[in-house]
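Retro notes - structure team

What went well: the batch runner handled both jobs without manual restarts.
What didn't: labels got mixed up in the shared folder, which is why I'm recording both outputs here explicitly, each with its sequence directly above its tokens.

Job 1
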Amino acid sequence: MRNTLGDLNNHLFAQLERLSDEDLKGEELSCEINRAKAVTDVASQIISNGALVLRAKTAYEEHISATATKPKMLEG
């Protein structure tokens, strides 16, 4: 199974809906809050990882562009 950032977004909104349930009280509410914190921690790591991958790809592409040379037959 392959998850996407869209899936993450859906999970976060589903968690928000669970937290918004006015029928949750006491121990159930405390459990849901703890679950929300865990989901938030994992989501933050996923987003940080995605940002790192994007920065690495951008740096690589900028490096390739900066070091690219024209083929000899096109110079002149």
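Job 2
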Amino acid sequence: MQRAVTDDAVAADGGTTAAPADDDVPAGADGRARRLAWGADVGVPAAIRVGEMLLQLLFLSWLDPAGGPALSKLLTKWDAVYYGTIASTGYPHGVTLAPDGTLATGYEFAFYPTYPLLAGIADHLGLSTTHALLLTAAVCGVVASSLVHLLTLELTGSRRAGWCAAALLGALPMAVALQMGYAESLFVAVTAATLLAAARGNWAAAAALALAAGLTRPGGILVPLAIPLAAFALRRHRPVAWARVVGATVVGLLGSPLYWAYLWWRTGRADTWFFVEKHGWDSHVDVGHQTWDFLRLAVTQPDTVQFMGVGAVVSIVVIGGGCLVAAARRQYLPIVVLCLLGAAMTLGATNYWHSKPRLLLACFPLVVLAGPVVARWRTSTAVLAVGGAVAASCWYGAYALDVWRYAI
């Protein structure tokens, strides 16, 4: 699926400028070309993510009341507390229930191990747990931005489209979670890397990365599906070793089951993760009943619930609509399927309704489809539109952390 790489220095007809013959290449030109490509394909999207993170911090500081908590505390609230406990002391050894049937201990088992494992490495190197969580999330966010660019470049051949897709990550409604003490940025990174490896036909790498996704977030169980779907798309361009594709898919699907098996071994309960989800968060499949009630509440409740609710409604409509449009236009099949299933997994299960915009970050591959669209706009239009969307996302995220009193 390799395409000719283009950027602003393309020929007028859209083709790439012909490279000079080897004899005409000056000494050191190859090295300079590699450095330029590295800067364009890694440095630029990384700089975009860093800029978006700094802008988010400015909005957080702006809305933070005088005498309010430090920014590091704002970014490590709620679920980050459990990730921090796992990173510093590991998982507990059992699950207990309170007399009312709610979970008394064992909340940590709801959180998959890859992100706290990485944060734990930084923690054991001398950083505080808070800083270890934030550093891990920030680094993963930067890597994720570069991988989203590289994936878009692989599929479109356009660096400009890749940069636009990377910038659009920061425009997602709850993009603030990409720099919180949460696993979202790592999940985006490993999912984008899986899609990239599969698009290149590197089945071994795709299998390992899909396995990692399954050990990062519950939604990671869907990521291995990208492997056979990518093979189906690749078959038009080159022969596909279907035995390797099947093997890679099977390996990728082992991620979540391996974690569940570990919990069985640690606690003696075969259903530990599902038990904790039910008794700790009352989370289970309800085919969208709670989502419907939540949407109705979001547009009728006349207080601050309405603000967060409307933001979530916008998330659902935009992301859900984007999935449907992408499917109707027959866009790149692995992205369409992952986004549709990710949206269905979020909206078809019970969970804290004000967390739905964050959980819908699983549909982030839509930015890969939107990047080429934005890239065709005039530069000034693209900068104003994407910049405005990023600013709105930063304000929404700052409100959620500074003002909103419930967990996201």
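One thing worth noting from job 2: DSSP finds 18 helices and two strands in the chain.
We'll revisit the folder naming next retro.
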